């Protein structure tokens, strides 16, 4: 098991290095439905971050903290705020004032967060629509305990789509890269936006071409999930 995961991680790291040599793009191992041992094997092989979707699952799995930063990449229910703050190094799924407000109220010091963007404006996905991002960031100083370290973007699935639809996803990734760069140039003290997290197993090469700083991979590292 560990050997297979290590080989997959090394393959992905080589891909990252081939497309964006020397830039320090980070690999986030997405460990939903994976054991602690599987996750730790990915970290030992070079994954720099761990992403979990559910607070409860993460709490059960990481009662002993992982050796690399742990990010929440799934939707946050506001009744889980306390555990979230204790457990995660970053909450990457801020997509509403309500969630920002709830976190800000409970954080005593400072919490790293990312803005979640629904790039394709799909009804089935969470995340803020791209056209609302800028206005949201401008007023994010209202939550002094939150530091917006980046953006996490979701895209329509490329699996089983036509060439034309694939082109659209690639264009959307480029646009999202542009949006991230323009917002970062604003240099809001509360939003340094150093990170752009986009790209999953089926589209991470495109995300690398579009300038991402973090790719989030599950299947490519651990094989298919069985629900
Ligand atoms: C599950 C998940 C991933 C990883 O998906 P794979 O296709 O298995 O690489 C990445 N990001 C988010 C938000 C996810 O929920």
UniProtKB/TrEMBL annotation:
Residues 8-224 form the Alanine racemase N-terminal domain. The modification N6-(pyridoxal phosphate)lysine is found at residue 32. It comes from the Bacteria. Keywords: Pyridoxal phosphate. Pyridoxal 5'-phosphate (PLP)-binding protein, which is involved in PLP homeostasis. Belongs to the pyridoxal phosphate-binding protein YggS/PROSC family. This is Pyridoxal phosphate homeostasis protein. It comes from Sulfobacillus thermotolerans.
